[in-house]
Amino acid sequence: VMTEMRLPKRMVGEFAEIVHRKTLGHALFIVELLNSLVRNGTISYSLRKRRYDFDWDRLISTETWESVGSLIVSNLSLLSKNDLQNLRIICCFGIQCNISIVSLIKDCPGVQSIEMPSSICRLINDGILERDGPKLVFSHDLI
Description:
Layout: H1 2-5, H2 9-23, H3 27-39, E1 43-46, E2 51-54, H4 56-61, H5 68-77, H6 81-91, E3 96-98, H7 99-105, H8 116-125, E4 129-132, E5 135-138
Helix pairs in contact: 2-3, 6-8
């Protein structure tokens, strides 16, 4: 946490302890918790302070997940309607599919893919999909 936020230990020590306590030190949960704290504005960059800052009250009241499954469900519930629709379409191909196949979907009658290329980028950035060369792969088998 200290390295990523580029702050001295004295400024992130208590923050890191809270994150560790909420995640029980599980690396996947730590990464996901930190990502969700950035998404919901609990962690943000302060131009005035010229450093990262966090909202203590929001951090303390943040609920965590009981399992990887509930973490994934939580992440999926944050997706836009369009991204969720496109994820459902991609799921039809199994745990991985070639990007060129997905790009053909937009031309298929009856398939309502919405902004598929930008949606794929968001799904990759959110950690739901990963790109492996010419393939899209789900980041976890529970998805």
